[in-house]
Structure formats: structure tokens, C-alpha cells
Design brief:
97 residues, binds iron/sulfur cluster
Length: 97
């Protein structure tokens, strides 16, 4: 790996981390408020949740009741304008418009 590539990769990793840090881990986009959350969603502390398969989350997953759905990057949800009303990414983009 060249020096430029290493610097670029480090820069992109910092950007990715900053983007993912916006998430307040409310669990809404994982079905928490729908009454049938994803089986991989677990409570971390009051009001905060985490995904037990985060690094391998993308693709087919299922809810507690057994419904099948496709877990996607949050950027796909943003792209289609389907963010939850309370999602922290709404604030991020509200400041950029
Ligand atoms: S697999 Fe996807 S939908 Fe399920 S908890 Fe993880 S991030 Fe949320
Ligand atoms: S709805 Fe938004 S803030 Fe809440 S867990 Fe999903 S991405 Fe994070």
C-alpha cells in the first residue's frame, strides 16, 4: 500500500466512523417501535440498543415473529427518504439543506 492510499483509507475510515457516530442507537429502524423488531436487536441500556450481528447485518434477516426482511445500509434508507421521524440522521441532513 502506498503512502497516499494509506492516508486516503485512514481519512475514509474517519469519515465512516463520524457518519456512523450520528446514530443514537434508538432501534427504531430495526423495528423496535413496530412491535416486531429484528431478532438481532438487543437492549444495551435504557433507550439504547445494539445489533448482535452488526458486521454481517446486511441482507436477509428476520423479525421476532419470523417475518423476513432485507437489512440495508442506513444510506439506502436516507437515499429513499424513508428515515424514521426520530432518527438522528434527520438532524444531520436538516443542517445541510
Ligand atoms: S440485522 Fe439490521 S435490522 Fe437487525 S438489528 Fe442488525 S442492523 Fe438492525
Ligand atoms: S432510527 Fe436512526 S438513530 Fe435510530 S437506530 Fe436507526 S439509524 Fe440510528
Amino acid at each position: 500500500m502506498t503512502g497516499d492510499t494509506k492516508i486516503y483509507n485512514e481519512y475514509m475510515e474517519k469519515k465512516r466512523f463520524a457518519f456512523e457516530s450520528v446514530c443514537k442507537r434508538c432501534g427504531e429502524c430495526c423495528g423496535l417501535v413496530d412491535g416486531d423488531p429484528c431478532v438481532n436487536l438487543k437492549k444495551y441500556k435504557e433507550g439504547a440498543y445494539y445489533c448482535t450481528v452488526y458486521d454481517e447485518r446486511l441482507g436477509i434477516q428476520k423479525t421476532v415473529s419470523g417475518k423476513i426482511f432485507n437489512c440495508v445500509y442506513i444510506r439506502e434508507i436516507i437515499k429513499h427518504g424513508c428515515l424514521r421521524p426520530n432518527c438522528a440522521y434527520n438532524d444531520l441532513f436538516a443542517h445541510q439543506i
